[in-house]
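Duplicate of #3305? Posting structure anyway:
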């Protein structure tokens, strides 16, 4: 199965591209910037009970280049509940970020640690185009000091990666 998708802005400029194979023996994806340069490699750990992914710098999969890992909070869940651990959080007793919501409904919130501090939010943006031709559009609010590529990485981990996606980024942090 093809795990490729493109993230564009409202002017159809390519912001990111995700390339890789899903449902293969070695499920991995590479996130490229708009110019085609590799930013990170996402690698799914096989035989993981909690659907664990590791994210590495560039095209590396070397342990020394690990940036963070993400795993589902429980083996069976109806709603999205993902724990994210930065590379230096070796014991993984407390997560560094928590994703809650419904990825399938494109409605998620990313929290900092165990707090109620929101660092990003994603929800569907219904437009005539999205309704008529089925092109997914998302409004993503990214709060200060959060790299918006991080949110795209979480999407690449949590979605099937089918089709193009158009993202509308709001960097105001939810302020009016």
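Output from current build:
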């Amino acid at each position: 199965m093809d795990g490729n998708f493109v993230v564009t802005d409202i002017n159809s400029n390519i912001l990111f591209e995700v390339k890789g194979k899903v449902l293969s023996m070695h499920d991995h994806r590479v996130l490229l910037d708009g110019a085609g340069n590799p930013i990170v490699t996402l690698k799914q750990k096989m035989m993981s009970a909690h659907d664990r992914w590791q994210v590495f710098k560039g095209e590396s999969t070397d342990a020394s280049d690990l940036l963070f890992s993400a795993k589902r909070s429980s083996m069976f869940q109806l709603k999205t509940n993902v724990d994210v651990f930065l590379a230096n959080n070796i014991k993984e007793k407390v997560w560094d970020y928590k994703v809650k919501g419904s990825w399938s409904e494109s409605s998620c919130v990313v929290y900092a640690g165990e707090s109620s501090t929101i660092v990003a939010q994603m929800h569907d943006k219904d437009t005539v185009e999205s309704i008529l031709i089925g092109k997914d559009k998302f409004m993503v609010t990214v709060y200060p000091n959060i790299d918006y590529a991080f949110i795209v990485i979480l999407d690449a981990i949590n979605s099937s990666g089918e089709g193009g996606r158009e993202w509308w980024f709001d960097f105001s942090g939810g302020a009016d």
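Confirmed duplicate; merging threads. The two ends are 42 Å apart (CA to CA). Helices lie at 128-133, 148-158.
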